[in-house]
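Comment thread on ticket #2218

A.B. wrote:
> Attaching the input chain for the structure job we discussed in standup.
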Amino acid sequence: MKSALASLLLMSFSSLAGDLMVHDAWIRAMPPTSRVVPLYLTLHNGGDKELVLSSIASPRGEIALHQTVQEGEMMKMLPVDSIRIPAHGMVKLEPQGLHAMMSDFNAGVPEQGEEVSLQLTLADGETLQAKARVTQFGGKGQDSANADQGMHDHSMHH
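C.D. wrote:
> Ran it. Output below, let me know if you need it in another format.
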């Protein structure tokens, strides 16, 4: 009886923890005078239903979700209210696509090598804690040539 109860509690805890995983979270290292810095990560939904990321928060500053779109010859960043992660799918927040921007820093611009705490909130209120490393060239599997292609200059954004 006790082991059945323990199993039930563990299963309940697992379902409350949710199906969202965060991989390769990183913040581009920027000069200390920057007003904003880009944040990238990969979201993996291992569950059977779509998940919706509604926000990312950090004690280091404000974070807004964005998408880069091309309008004619111009690339523009547009704010987005949420990001949908399909069932059993992945969504990458990456240069030249969906991404997040951190601004209004509480303790200065995050520095190279630093780890920044993040809290991701889903539309249903569920939260997930993650950390993003501040680096010039990105997370796993990203080389400097690819990172340079995706460089964003957000110095005049917001």
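A.B. wrote:
> Thanks. Noting for the ticket: The beta strands are 20-28, 36-45, 51-57, 62-71, 74-79, 83-85, 90-93, 98-103, 115-122, 127-135.
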